[in-house]
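Encode chain A's predicted structure.
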Amino acid sequence: MGPEAPCSISPAPMPTPLLELSVKNYKSLRDVSVRLGPLNVLVGPNGSGKSNLLDVIEFLGDSAREDLGPALERHLGYHRLYFRGETSGPIRIHVKAMVTSYAHEGAPDEYKLSIKGSTLRARIKQTHPSQWTAGAPKLLLQRQEEFAFKRVKGRGRRITISGGKSELVDLRGDKEERRKRGISLRSDSLGLSTLPKLSPEEGGEGVRKMAELFSTFRVFDVDARAARQPSASPIERVLQSDASNLAAFLRYLSENEETFEQLQEDARAMVPGLQRIHLRPIGGATEAIAIELEEAGLKGRTSLAEASFGTIRALALLAMLYDPNPPQLTCVEEIDHGFHPYVLDRLVDRLRWASQRTQFLIATHSPTLVNRLHADELIVCERNLETGESLIPAADPEDVRAMEERAQGRMGLGELWFTGSLGGVPR
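Encoded structure for chain A:
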């Protein structure tokens, strides 16, 4: 049995916001569709598409915050994102989620994005003469979007965007009420970042909530070098995605003594010899904060700059797990990196506890961690070496559940995966 779950942070469990993610022609994701729960753990060999699935999440967040053009540039451009194997059609991303008041699993909110790029010089010259030059052809982007929201019983709303025009459709039973809007949008701009400005009657509230879901996605990737350093600010209430403000965020968590003591108890279990975490103010022109560790058998304190990689990563992940106001979705690659297998029971327990406040999509290569999962928390990934496409999930969730039940008491999910019974291993 794992350690008792913390209780000082105990808001009502939130509904799982992201229900399903379907992707076509994005990097190795030629055609995948993944159902998601509160805790989702990706397993599979290197190159199987785990990182690409997380990259889709990051791309949606960048698109909501910065718009389509900057998001594409940040992700190295359309042609670097487009699947390079045999395929046709645009990049497509389809999200089913619960962001509005009346949405439920049977009638979720939906967002669809289609992006197609063209560099045909003649076509650009004919249809978009302002974008044509005599030199190298510019990329012409064509994008389409669709939002669908459940409103009240028996009613819904759909907003479609094609080119520079949008159309609002109110669904009332079998009847549709259409209202065209002449909103001018550039080809590299999204309604996701523009339409939240509309009034609630015009659909702006639903679009705003969908954009907020994407823009709060956090891909947590600890930068140990940055996390070692003192924080320039004495206290911060938002943990950066690279944990570069770890000291200031721990100072914020320490305001709740019970919460901070529970975090330290977990840290003691994960870092041998650790007795206490100290947060030392540093004077100067602006007050800063540094982390120091009190360790068994050693005089004085150890600065975080002297601590091991595993210690820094443990503190950063615990800070993320104890965040009282996390984003709606948190992604982490190699969640077990730097941890001894002995502490993975506690890590999985804390992940389940924290998944009441933030949905997790994480990746691991550890059979020991997978042994501690339930079948509905596991997503097996593979790569088809003939076509180059990722297969996600590579094992049907019902088959995984059935194999788990048959092997109960003899083998865990991690052992089933390691032997190749579930797929998701190098071939």
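The longest strand covers residues 140-150.
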